[in-house]
Amino acid sequence: MKTDYVIFDGELILEDDHIQIKDKNFRWMKSLMILSQVSIIFLGLIWVNDNFKMYDDYRFLLGLFFLIGGIFGLLKSNKNTFVKQLFYYQIEKVEIKHTWQNLLIADFKVTNGRKRRVLLDRDDFGRFEKFFLDDLVNALKDKHIDTELK
């Protein structure tokens, strides 16, 4: 049995043993995110190191802020995955929620501690919530996946 759901930039396909996600999140995006976080950490290290030569407190504090923020961002971005296919036995939980940016997202929590985020719809359109949300929740519960609406 195959069930298709139209999401904001693609589609979500529930098949017999897995979920196929066709959206615009590509695997190279994770590499780009890691590269940007490492460059921010590198810039922070340079500015903190320059403090010992020039004694500029503003640059030191800004460099320290970049260093701490870059490390935190690198750890947070390491928890995300961009796989296109999730098997049902890998999924622990699905959280469907509205964000402060007027987005309806679904976070698929995977068994290895990572998550796959899927943009379902924007609130100003409201199509997914009106037509597909209840069917998706029921289909996931039929597959014995804990689904939570927030």
What would your notes on this structure say?
The chain has 150 residues and is α+β, with helices and mostly antiparallel strands. It is built from 4 helices and 8 strands, in the order βββααββββααβ. The strands form 2 sheets. Strands 1-2-3-4 form a 4-stranded antiparallel β-sheet, with no helix packed on it. The chain has a 4-stranded mixed β-sheet with strand order 7-6-5-8. β6 and β7 form a beta hairpin. α1 (28-54) runs antiparallel to α2 (57-77). The protein is elongated, with a radius of gyration of 20 Å. The chain starts with a strand and ends with a strand.
Q: What is the gist of this entry?
A:
This protein has helices spanning 28-54, 57-77, 127-131, 133-142; strands at 3-7, 10-14, 18-22, 85-87, 91-98, 103-110, 115-122, 146-149. With 150 residues, the chain is of the alpha+beta class. The radius of gyration is 20 Å and the shape is elongated.
Spell out the blueprint of helices and strands.
Layout: E1 3-7, E2 10-14, E3 18-22, H1 28-54, H2 57-77, E4 85-87, E5 91-98, E6 103-110, E7 115-122, H3 127-131, H4 133-142, E8 146-149
Parallel strand pairs: 5-8
Antiparallel strand pairs: 1-2, 2-3, 3-4, 5-6, 6-7
